[in-house]
Amino acid sequence: MEKLLDEFKTAIQRENEVLDQLVSLGEEKQRHIVLGQLKELDGLMQREGLVVANLEKLEGTRFKLQQQINQKWGRDDIQPATELLSRVQTEIPAQYAGLEEQINRLAYNLSRLKVINNHNHELLEQSLGYIATLEALLEGDIAGTYSDKGQQVDEDRARPRLNLLDKRV
């Protein structure tokens, strides 16, 4: 069981290393979005795709190891990390500290990556809004029409554009 837990801990450690790479790429992506460097952003997204593919393989490995640990403990389901840690602390205390560190780091990295991805999404939305505003200024804009639920309804693009009230800032 100790060997299996060592492999599990190593798998999580490798996932953490890849998540660190994704965080770094996400931060770099922010700079390219803000500076409007589309060519660099495109290349970065291709690199990111390769890193994500590697992460998927590592996650598959970690999941299989966690299944094996659960089977050795007579469980058919996958127990959450907190339960697994609790059981390791009780039954194999020598493995607890290292495993706890890696699992906590994994949770931290996932949270950090989620925040960066949300921020990048917001930056992209702002960039698209800015582009739409510039386009409207150059070509004119149609007045906004809204549904009964308050959602903006697309207008016929063939009409000449005129916007008196609805401007995106």
**Could you give the order of the helices and strands?**
HHHHEE
Number of strands: 2
Instruction: Tell me the structural class.
Output: mainly alpha
**Approximate strand percentage:** under 5%
Q: CA-to-CA gap between the ends?
A: 59 Å
Fraction of residues in helix: over 70%
Q: Which residue ranges are poorly predicted, with pLDDT under 50 across at least 5 consecutive positions? A: none
Shape: elongated
Q: Radius of gyration over alpha carbons?
A: 24 Å
How many DSSP helices? 4
If strands are numbered along the chain, what order do they take across the biggest sheet? Answer: 1-2
Largest sheet: 2 strands, antiparallel
Task: Round the mean pLDDT to the nearest integer and report it.
Answer: 84
List the helices and strands and how they pair.
Blueprint: H1 2-35, H2 38-72, H3 81-91, H4 93-139, E1 145-146, E2 152-153
Antiparallel strand pairs: 1-2
Give a description of the structure.
There is one protein chain. The protein contains four helices and two strands, in the order ααααββ. With 169 residues, the protein is mostly helical. Strand 1 and strand 2 form a beta hairpin. Helix 1 runs antiparallel to helix 2, helix 1 (2-35) runs parallel beside helix 4 (93-139) and helix 3 (81-91) packs antiparallel against helix 4 (93-139). The chain is elongated, with a radius of gyration of 24 Å. The chain starts with a helix and ends in a 16-residue tail after the last strand.
